[in-house]
Design brief:
This protein has one helix at about 5-25; strands at about 40-45, 50, 55-60, 60-70, 80, 85, 95-100, 105-110, 120-125. By secondary structure, the protein is of the alpha/beta class. It comes from Corynebacterium lujinxingii.
Length: about 130
Amino acid sequence: MARVDTVAWAVVATLVAGTASAAAVVHSRADDIPTGDDVITVDVDVDRMRFIPDRVEVPRGTKLVVNLTNSGEEEHDLKVGEGHSGRLDPGETSTAYYGEFNVDALGWCTIAGHKTMGMTFKVDVTP
């Protein structure tokens, strides 16, 4: 194998390994999930191109944890605030910490085209 080919394959292997490593860290570990009176945990379902519910109301300063279940037939995820569910295959569930909210925030499915098809999730902060 020519040196150029070897270098090219080494670059590809590095990129693949880096992508796999990044994908592995998007899910929250159990010890990363906060507990306490300032934490709200909500269950959100994904079906087709919708989050159900598609909004949550939280008091200012609240920490948000989402149990996200993909009941649809294709891969989805949720990115809002500091958190990201990671990509979920149909039937999978993820629990993730999305951060402390002091202002309204908009989240969405990060898969290409899904946000424009209406896959958004709103965090409304109340005083």
